[in-house]
Amino acid sequence: MTPTTPPETTPFLIAGYVVLLGGLLLYVVTLFWRYKQALADRTFLDEIEGAS
Amino acid sequence: MQPRPTWIRVLEIVAVVALLAALGMVFFYAPMERVMGQVQRVFYFHVASNWIGMLSFAIAALTGIAYLISRKEKWDRLQVAAVELGLVFSIMGIISGSIWARPIWNTWWTWDPRLVSVTIMVLVYFAYLMLRQGIEDPERRARFAAVYAVLGFLSVPLTFFSIRLFRTIHPQVIGKSGPGAQGTFDMTPEMVHTLIFSVVTYTILYVVLLWHRNRLEGLRREIERRKARLESLH
Predict the structure, then answer these.
(1) Average pLDDT, whole number, for chain B?
(2) Are B76 and B155 in contact (CB under 8 A)?
(3) Would the CB atoms of A6 and B37 count as touching at under 8 Å?
(4) What angle do CA B198, B192, A15 make, to 5 degrees?
(5) Residue A45 and residue B223: Cβ atoms within 8 Å?
(6) Neighbour-count burial for B163-183, b at 16+ CB within 10 Å, e otherwise
């Protein structure tokens, strides 16, 4: 029986994990960014409410 | 803003360590599949990602029921977080599946029952976000969204069972694949361990992300309320 050689599919493997891990990282970054924005908004509101 | 409890800090560290360990298992512990080659390794995180997508939509449906019974805002908040995360994980699952399909099915995309049903599921939940944007009154928005999240959940079992109910080329992980399935393989014990570990890792990661997204939603709503109060004063 002739042994089978698996096809060369490494680029697809890399692309798959770039999407899976990159997507996760991107989501975490957007979450962090939204937190930052919300905290800045809250500080701004604290200042306005303190002044009024 | 809700302070970060110790258990979530611990879980954050566990999630990062487990993710690195899962990657180690995917690339160094699980053997290479002899027919598909390296690309088969996409399978571990692809399955985990889709599992989280479906789990998240199930949580959205449960929070919908909880909201309709109790009318407590916390359920509506958690529901938004669950839908958003469900979409993120489902989309990553679809794209990674498409990348796997290119060398195995010789196409990026085909209108197979599983691929169609998962697309419908994602569109259903995109529509959920659009519905929320379209309703201004918070109480009404929460009520409509809760009903929609419960009804929208019908698309999840449809997606899960599509490979069992219809003739499909998509392989089946649990149970025997259909006769037309392409890209099937027998899992070795190492592959089973890697898959289980990946699914558990993604579940831990999901709990962490859901907690943070829920907290962010709480903060966002607090700001909205304060802005509305200030506007009413001036």
Answers:
(1) 94
(2) no
(3) yes
(4) 50
(5) yes
(6) beeeebbbbeeeeebbeeeeb
